[in-house]
């Protein structure tokens, strides 16, 4: 099975981090295709970045479709362009934000999200409301650290993430943590060990869920809002 | 006061229709700037169209900002790119979908939306959930007519819209109708007369609401998710 | 266009404050008629006050209808008697509570309400639930200051309002503030300046929204719960 | 124990019907005081009627308090003036609308309301949302029969009520019926027999619940929105 | 009228405590039958205990049915086995958790639950969501005290319960308290006195509600999910 | 990886059907252990069956834990005993009801459930509310066919399932179907082919999700409501 992981951020360094995380997380028998949305903004930290990134990401989706992949993971916690990607793909498409949230509800009563910057919170809140999982979310917290700093793994970034994790468990009453940024993937195992609870990171969750859907023979419904665009659109 | 109405669809004909509707609807003392998202898809009938249209629409937002407008109306019922536009603009930004829904709740207990094609329903449903107005919506109905046919005003299109309007009132228990497509603007007055209830069309609603916000001195908060993008984004 | 602003409180001083705020807020071309519910309780600080005030306020609505106004604003943040007023009026009717909440959701992701006394909170919470906007409200806070003290503008009242405003932004995560009492209208501009976010006060919001509805030709639906009362009721 | 049942409608005939229903429904050991809101509208069929009735009803509440009753039932399905009555009374106060809905959820998974006229539906919908029981309501149906005709017990009225009852069970999937009008009280037993399911009428439900609260020593909290009005209000 | 109170915990001491509380709370004219789920776990402090207790509790329900009781109260705040008991009983069945929550909403705007251990919270949260009363709940708090310690009435247990009660009122904004454990029944009166607000305990609430239903002639609907099990089940 | 699929129904025939479905659905590299809740009711068609089945099912969970499995699937669409099983297991536990619903939301905007008998609907409705996925469910439909008849595959059973499937798509507006009964597993592929949309059956969904969780290193949080029971419970 071939699965495509697309980084909607243009940053090549971030794409390499995602490639490494995906390689570690890929289910047995999965061949990975990892791409980045070169041409778009280096990192997505708000609605404008998101909007500018999507057309480039959809190009990667179409190229991967042409290459015959069996499913796609959108490796940005905003689930940037998820609906549009579902319209273009034959196989299943999963965003790492929704994947992590769904997985968290299967191993905990209520999860909290710890993400990068406060600007990201409204998008994540809106996504959870649409997915139906808002009632399972005990809190949304921003560590106040830009995405590229998280990627760099500075001690300040790590300290801020640990502080919000503890607050989410102790003050919000969460019993699992969702790491709300693709760049946090490498931290999941240590945080889970330290805090004694599930810490879900999206790349692993996304790959395992799209693999689960693909092995189950499930693909996006074309009866409703995810219908394949009529020709006009492609011009 | 100068207000910018942007058609996120590229279709010049549709932009002209919007210009006509906006000219009719503009509050006294408003100077209009009407633009279209030339470069993007001719019409937006699903998430892929929406995603491809936004970068072009944001260009129009930035041009209008440079021209010093006091507020913006996004003239597509999907409220395409609304969050991103709010980040870029100094003044208030309103989508015609949210504008029509808010206005409907001020003149009725429960409204129903009558839109063009079924593919549009999930986006509209998701929007209403995010805005918080889903509980005020008695039904979402598609007339099964493509946007460009509505614009052309064929008798079949009109008959389908009237059929769904009646069903929304009689079966769904709505007491007001929201026309879910910019191209339906010209029909509002006749439908209101025929069915004896408020029929809200978004261009009028959007212009009057953004005018209300601007005259009230209200503009998008920059404290949260609508912060002005940092420089990186503009490159 | 003539718009009627009715103060459901009997206090003449408060009516004068509302008249001043309305005069400042009125859109161009609007002629104001400002009345107070003389005969009812001096100020509305709970359900009993509200119930006793409504019949007197409805009298003002009927008198203003007889005088041919084009719309009404109910200038109490409880939106006292709003449904009944909608049944009696030909034109649109807006309460300052709902008006402020709707406007806030158009310029911010989540608003918080800062009101006078804790006794007011359940009514406001119930209203937001009915309007559908509860999910957009990050918090409801009472400054613990009686309405008439707010009107008097004591330093203690102002300090309490500023304290709760700060808490709403920092602790509740709001990115806009709604001032939950007609008597706070004069504070909006300074608070907005100080806290760097939209501060919505209801008189301005109410006037601009009812003006928006009236210029759009929208009036309360008579198909449902706002039907004109049958004769029996008037006896 | 002395319990007060107040009819917020002025109609003496309706008050007699309520007295008869209450006498039949009163728990053992309960002494009844039954009053009507003479001075207000003959029947409540919309928000204006409701608003005009409340001051008269609150007078009855105060008179009954002076007479030393242990609790109150508001015998109108709109729960007219319930919040205000709670502020004035020492003992518990229950509206027949909320009482019937709460009882229905204790004997069924989902109930439907069958009421008199469509104008009543928005108020009932709003009430259920505030009580928190909207998710337990499978449908709200109006028989299209005015309150006074229901009271008169015409065959047409009965046929319409039976038709909507059947539809609520078969089409809405309700497994219990709530009769949404005080005047339907006498029909409950026969309808329950005919349709083989619980048919809850509010006078019985209200009396038994207020009796339950009073025997449990529970009375309205004065810590929050139901605080006893300060003196000013009583003038 | 004969009412059955079943303790789904096996602990004989706890059953005696419940018997004492029930004897004190029983409405006039009620003959009590109090049983315990001997054979099951001594106390229910999580889903496994709950699951193991239900078959034994259902045996008690069937024995009480054979003895001709008019209704049942399930005396565990989890409402353990409530749905199953409703299928087996002719008369009404009420859990003390739902009973207390319903009663609290009739005497307060928003209640908070103070229970024993944090493990209990997810079950209670889930129950309130299903009952529809989650929106009326200002907070769920665990005192961190095991059920059997509460029963023993240690000073530490009482101090913890008082601490959480105060926090629920001051921080969560509740205006009534629900005691979330059958073993707390004896504390209700003192806490209500101390904190000046309704403190609802479930045994009194449950008995008074099932008595209210039974005197009203209401019993569980057999049209839907509570249908009497077909024979197969009884083998 | 070893995964345990437990049939909470005692019927050996049904367990064989589940074994066959599981064998077909198992991801590569998965060794299956399939058990049935011998000792409990032959089939679960309501809350009493469910309650009586759980203790036997938990025995199977404990035996499988002793045998060292890596995760469990509860093969009843009611997700019978799911919370209790999570407390007892080291690895992840997934119910086929929740698994199917989660998968459906990843390939469609809104799903509908087609299940066996109407008695099952309240449990399923309650489950979806608790999971948070109720807003994604367009309808819950019962084919009116007992579980054992579905297992036998009678033409009447198949016709009824097809009729409700069509109604769910055409009338409820679903764009995917969830088969709400373990015995329907064999029908999924044909129905998906016939109706041109995803048809999710729980055994495949459950196995693939628990496999996804286990390969991701995710297991149930023990910080909250799923804590391992203290010793007392095991006696």
TrEMBL record, chains A, B, C, D, E, F:
Keywords, ordered alphabetically: Isomerase
Superkingdom as given in the UniProt entry: Bacteria
GO molecular function, one term: amino-acid racemase activity
EC number: 5.1.99.-
Gene3D superfamilies associated with the record: 3.40.50.12500
Family per similarity comment: Belongs to the HyuE racemase family.
Protein name: Hydantoin racemase
Provenance organism: Salipiger mucosus DSM 16094
Lineage of producing organism: Bacteria, Pseudomonadati, Pseudomonadota, Alphaproteobacteria, Rhodobacterales
């Amino acid at each position: 099975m071939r699965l495509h992981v697309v980084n909607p951020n243009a940053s090549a360094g971030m794409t390499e981090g995602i490639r490494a995380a995906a390689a570690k997380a890929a289910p047995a028998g999965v061949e990975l295709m990892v791409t980045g949305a070169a041409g778009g903004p280096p990192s997505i930290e708000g609605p404008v970045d998101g909007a500018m990134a999507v057309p480039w990401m959809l190009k990667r989706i179409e190229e991967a479709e042409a290459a015959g992949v069996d499913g796609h993971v959108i490796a940005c916690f905003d689930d940037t362009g998820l609906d549009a990607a579902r319209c273009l793909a034959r196989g299943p498409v999963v965003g790492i934000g929704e994947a992590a949230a769904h997985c968290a509800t299967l191993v905990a009563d209520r999860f909290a999200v710890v993400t990068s910057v406060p600007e990201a919170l409204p998008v994540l809140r809106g996504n959870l409301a649409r997915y139906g999982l808002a009632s399972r979310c005990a809190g949304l917290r921003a560590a106040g650290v830009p995405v590229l700093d998280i990627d760099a793994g500075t001690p300040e970034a790590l300290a801020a993430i640990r502080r919000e994790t503890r607050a989410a468990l102790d003050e919000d009453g969460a019993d699992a943590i969702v790491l709300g940024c693709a760049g946090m993937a490498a931290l999941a195992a240590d945080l889970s060990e330290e805090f004694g609870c599930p810490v879900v990171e999206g790349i692993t969750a996304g790959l395992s869920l799209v693999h689960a859907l693909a092995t189950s023979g499930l693909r996006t419904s074309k009866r409703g809002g995810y219908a394949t665009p009529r020709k006009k659109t492609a011009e």
